[in-house]
Amino acid sequence: MSKIKSIQLNNFKFFRKSDPIILDGKHLLLYGENGSGKSSVFWGLYTLLEAAYKRPNEVKSYFDSGIVSLVNIYAEKQNDPATGIEHRNSFIKIETDNGKTFIASLLDTAICGNNDAQESRKATDFLNYQSLFAFQHFKNSEIVNLYDVFDYYILPYVTFAPIRVNGKDLSNAAEMWKEYQNGPTKTGGYIKKNEKSEFQRFGSHFQSEFQRLIDFINQNSYGIIKELGYDIHFKLSYTSPSNNIGYKKYDCQKYKIILTIDSYNGQSIPINRPQTFLNEAKLTALALSIRLSVLKYRASSLAPDALQVLVLDDIMISLDMSNRNKLINLILNNLINQYQILFLTHNRQLFDYMNNRITKSNWSLFEMYEYNEKPVIQQYKTPLAKAYQYFKGAGCDIDYNACGNNLRQELERILKGLLSFSSLRQKNGKPLDINKLMLKDCIDYARTKFPTWGFNVNLLNEIDSFRVLTINPTSHFNPKSDYYKQELQRTFEIVEELNKCQIQTIISVNSVLILKVCDRVGIEHYYKLKLSDDVLICNSGHGFYLNNSDKYHMVAFENDGKSINYNIIESFETFMSKMCQFNNWDMKANIYDCYFCIDGKKLSQLFTEKSIHTR
Question: Quick one: fold of 1-124+307-379?
Answer without folding.
Answer: Rossmann fold (3.40.50)
